[in-house]
Every structure is written in C-alpha cells, then in structure tokens.
C-alpha cells in the first residue's frame, strides 16, 4: 500500500484540513478521509478537536488509512482514534499530527498561526488522557453524576453557586472526606493529574480557546467544567502548573488568573515548566492566548528561521511591542533569559548596543536610539533601568538626585570609540549625569584573540564521564546530552541520540553546535555521523567560527 502524500493547502486563506473517521468496530482498520476546508467559511463543517500528548504511551507506531493510503501514527494517538471512533456514524475531527503536514515547515507556520481559531471554532475539544482503568472509570462516573445533578439544580447562578452545587452533590455521591470511596477517588484523581498531557505547552491554548471540553479516559468521559473543580472540592494539593491548566478550562476560566492581563511575558514566566518537542513552541504556543501578541500579522510562528532569530524576535516584541527589522540588532538571548523582567532585558540590550563595534555597530546603535526614545516616552520603567546602570557606573548618588524631580531627558552621544549615555534634568539648571560605554574590543584586540579557542561549555581536562553522569541525574535535555557525548567522543551514544531525534544543528547559547564540538576535538567518526544527519557545515558560532575554523583551532590546541 502506498504511503500517504499531502496535497498543499491554500496559504492565502484560513485553510485547514479535517479528518473524517469512518464508523467501525474495535478490530476494524481505522479508515479516514482527509479534506481541506476554510475556517472563515459561512458553513464550515461541525467538527471536534483533539487535545492529547504526542509522547504519551510507547514509541510504537500503528497504521491507519487516510484516503486509502498508509499513514503511521504513534501509539497514544492510535489509541485515542480507536476509542473516539463510533460504530454507527462517522466522526469529524481535527488532530494536528494528521491534519498538518509535519514535514513542511512553511505549512506548519501557517497552520500554527491559526490553531487558536481551530480550537475556538470546534464544537467541542476532546482531552485524551489515555485508556484509563476501572478506577478512572469510577471517577468519570462520579464526575458525570455530580455534573448532571448540579446542572439540574442550577438556576442561572454565578460560578460560585455552581461550585457550591458541585460540592453538595459530591458529598452525596462520595460521602465525607474520610470515607473509603472519597479517599480512593481522591487518589485516582491525583494520579490522573500526573498525566503527561498537563505538561504539554500546546494544550494551554487548546483548552483556553475551547467553548466546551470533555475529559476522555478510554470509552469514558466527563465534562471538563466539572472535572476542573474536583481537585479543589476534594481538598487535593495540585502543583502550580497543573492548577493553571485546570483554571483555564471552560466554565472556570472567567473566575481565575485568566481574567487578568495575559501578556506574553507573563505567560512565558507562568508556564516556564511546560514541555514541547521544539523549544520555539514554548513561545509560539502562547501567542494566541496572550492579549498583546495574539495578532498573527504582528507576531506569528515560523519554523523556517533559525531558533536564535526566534528568541531575537521575542525579545524585540517584549521590549518594543513589535518585531523590529534586521536593521536593529540585539544581543543573543536564550529562552530562559526571555523570562527575566522586561526592564532587565532592555538594560542588557542597551548596554550591549552601546558597547558594540563593527560589523554590528550601526544596527546596534539604531536599536539603542529607538530604545532611548521609548524610555523618554515613558513606555518602560526608566527609573529602574537608570538606577541599575548608575550602580554599575558609580553614579547612584547623582542619578538619584536627578530622578527625584522626574523631569529629565535621556540622550546618547557617540564620540570616537565610546558611547556616552547622558541623563539631563529639565529642572535643575540643566544638570547632567553621564555614563560612558567604551567599545567592547578594539580591532587589534579582536585580531589578537582570533586564533584562541573560544570558551566552550566543556573543558579539555574535564572528566566527561562524571559530567555525563551529572547531566543524566539532572534530567538534562537530549540536546545537552548530544553535546556532551560529542565532546567526549562517545560515537555510539551520539548515534543513538541522533536516531532518537536529537537535532544535529541544535546550538547552545554561544552558537556552538555538535559539529563545532566534534571538529574542534578531532572526532572524525562523529563528524561523519553528524554530516549524515545534515549537520550544517556553514553554521557560525557567536564568535564567528565555522566548523572548519574550529577544526583549525582544535589542531593548534592539540599541538
């Protein structure tokens, strides 16, 4: 049987694909048809959207039929489709792993940009938490019973009244908190909340955009609106991340943190512990649910650009509220650094820009001038930024006196090989505080440093066996393990990591890739492995070295 081939979508429109799961019995092949439709059509088909954990279950793959062609899906999705399928009618479903061509980065960007609308347009969002067991079945039955009776008793009251009704019927169903049934179902719920689904970053917008949602465990389900109350009603301690997810389920979200300002920076910080296959998704998955970055014409997902550019775009948006063009340069930030207070990001960007030399000097200065304009307009916490800079320049007393009067102007003068930040009072007889930012390096200093090995994350004399054990114990990422094993020269470990999905082109915060480590250390067998996985030989690190440069530096270091 031939392998399924996608037909391209119309990227000029709000086009998506929907999956029609044909009716069938348990042991029948899962047969589906995939077709294109448009979210802005007057009569868009009524469909449900699936929310699930990609990595759930085993790594085994199973075949389903899509348009009479073979399509392989992971175990967790296969199980979900099998349980969602009806015996008496077809089911129309949106599921990302099938409805998006995951091998086409351009299409992924187009589709991810629309995912908020996909889930908000869906008739219902189905939250798949696995096949469950007899205990979860009993829990689902209890939640359903509580929901049905609370709904009957409800008289158009507010959310607090709904909570009281659920508490009342929970007591009728489960007895007092010390009862055996209550204790058992409380334990089952606690275990269910450990499901990997709660850690996925993408489920945040999937749940937040849902009109209605149901929790599915095998063939049994319950309304998310009541399920989300259960940990609170049962007195269950829930970790902060999982509670934040429960808080944005339908019915509950209007009375939680969701009702406050949901700026992108706040979401990046709140959901720092979320998981994603691609690091950039820890930003992209939050865009549509944020209040300031939900306009796809201003900030949209792109899977074609380098990850470092994604962080650059993000910090530009956080500081300026827009993504500045490449005529404005920024220092390199890592994803964790994006969660620093915005004023710290602004200070780092300004300090870096004022210290820059060619070739980035002009674009860095352009960014610095714009940032100073924004500070003068009062768009950032300029008092805090200036006090921090003053501490580093020994000007705290002078700047505090000037800032006390509030009326001042910030300017930049570029004089020779230095930049001078001047803060001038408009009240105190034009009193000025100046802070000097010399260029970070002269041209001669750069030439002298050119042949010296850069500062790597590992050292030549480091005991890599101990380092690798430490990284494993710390639960380090697959990418970190790839770099460590590459540096150590562990060919088999590198091969296994690459086969498991480690990115041959993944770079650390200095722009060093596994290929850079391998060429510097002279591990030619690993170089060949990486090249076979399409490692980019032209990739350049932050200090401007390519793989060839590192090979030369490594030879010199070993001489």
Could you please describe the fold and organization of this structure?
The protein is of the alpha/beta class and 559 residues long. Among the domains are: 15-122, no CATH class; 134-199 and 226-256, no CATH class; 464-558, Alpha Horseshoe (Serine Threonine Protein Phosphatase 5, Tetratricopeptide repeat). The protein is built from 25 helices and 12 strands. It has helices spanning 75-84, 96-99, 105-112, 115-121, 134-153, 159-174, 180-192, 203-208, 224-227, 230-233, 240-247, 264-270, 281-287, 307-320, 342-354, 361-376, 382-392, 396-404, 443-449, 464-473, 478-488, 491-499, 514-521, 524-532, 547-558, and strands at residues 15-21, 31-38, 48-51, 61-66, 69-74, 91-94, 124-128, 213-217, 220-223, 408-415, 418-425, 432-438. The strands form 2 sheets. Strands 5-4-2-1-6-3-7-8-9 form a 9-stranded mixed beta sheet. Strands 10-11-12 form a 3-stranded antiparallel beta sheet, with helices on one face. A hairpin with a 2-residue loop joins strand 4 (61-66) and strand 5. Helix 15 (342-354) crosses helix 17, helix 20 runs antiparallel to helix 21 and helix 22 (491-499) packs parallel to helix 24 (524-532). The longest helix is centred in the N-terminal third of the chain and has 20 residues, at 134-153. The protein is globular.
């Amino acid at each position: 049987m031939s392998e399924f081939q996608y037909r391209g979508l119309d990227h000029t429109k709000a086009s998506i694909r929907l999956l029609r799961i044909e009716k069938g019995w348990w042991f029948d092949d899962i047969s589906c048809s995939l077709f294109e439709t448009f979210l802005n059509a007057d009569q868009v088909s009524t469909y449900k959207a699936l929310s699930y954990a990609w990595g759930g279950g085993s790594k085994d793959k199973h075949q389903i039929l899509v348009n009479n062609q073979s399509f392989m899906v992971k175990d967790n999705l296969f199980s979900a489709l099998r349980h969602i399928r009806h015996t008496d009618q077809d089911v129309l479903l949106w599921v990302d792993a099938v409805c998006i061509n995951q091998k086409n980065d351009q299409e992924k960007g187009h589709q991810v940009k629309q995912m908020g609308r996909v889930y908000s347009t869906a008739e219902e969002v189905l939250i798949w938490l696995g096949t469950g067991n007899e205990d979860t079945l009993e829990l689902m039955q209890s939640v359903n019973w509580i929901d049905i009776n609370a709904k009957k008793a409800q008289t158009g009251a507010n959310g607090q009244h709904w909570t009281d009704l659920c508490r009342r019927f929970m007591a009728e169903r489960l007895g007092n908190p010390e009862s055996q049934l209550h204790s058992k179902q409380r334990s089952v719920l606690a275990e269910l909340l450990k499901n990997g689904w709660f850690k996925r970053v993408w489920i945040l917008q999937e749940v937040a955009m849902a009109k209605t949602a149901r929790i599915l465990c095998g063939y049994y389900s319950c309304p998310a609106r009541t399920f989300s109350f259960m940990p609170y009603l049962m007195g269950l301690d829930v970790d902060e991340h999982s509670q934040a997810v429960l808080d944005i389920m339908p019915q509950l979200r209007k009375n939680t943190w969701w009702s406050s300002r949901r700026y992108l920076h706040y979401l990046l910080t709140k959901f720092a512990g979320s998981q994603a296959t691609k690091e950039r998704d820890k930003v992209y998955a939050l865009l549509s649910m944020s209040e300031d970055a939900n306009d796809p014409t201003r900030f949209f997902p792109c899977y074609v650009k380098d990850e470092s550019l994604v962080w650059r775009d993000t910090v530009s948006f956080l500081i300026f509220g827009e993504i500045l063009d490449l005529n404005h340069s920024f220092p390199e930030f890592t994803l964790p650094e994006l969660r620093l207070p915005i004023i710290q990001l602004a200070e780092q960007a300004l300090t870096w820009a004022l210290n820059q030399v060619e070739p980035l000097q002009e674009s860095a200065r352009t960014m610095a001038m714009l940032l100073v304009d924004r500070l003068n307009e009062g768009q950032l916490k300029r008092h805090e930024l200036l006090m921090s800079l003053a501490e580093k320049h020994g000007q705290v007393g002078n700047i505090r006196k000037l800032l006390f009067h509030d009326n001042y102007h910030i300017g930049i003068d570029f004089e020779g090989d230095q930049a001078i930040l001047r803060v001038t009072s408009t009240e105190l007889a034009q009193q000025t505080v100046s802070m000097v930012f010399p260029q970070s390096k002269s041209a001669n200093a750069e030439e002298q440093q050119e042949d010296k090995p850069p500062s790597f994350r590992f050292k030549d004399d480091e005991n890599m066996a101990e380092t690798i054990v430490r990284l494993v114990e710390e639960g380090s990422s697959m990418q970190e393990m790839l770099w460590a094993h590459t540096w150590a020269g562990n060919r088999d470990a590198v091969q296994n990591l690459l086969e498991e999905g480690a990115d041959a082109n993944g770079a650390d915060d200095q722009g060093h890739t596994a290929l850079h480590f391998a060429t510097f250390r002279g591990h030619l067998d690993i170089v060949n492995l990486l090249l076979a996985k399409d490692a980019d030989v032209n990739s350049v690190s932050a200090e401007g070295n390519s793989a060839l440069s590192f090979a030369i530096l490594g030879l010199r270091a070993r001489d």
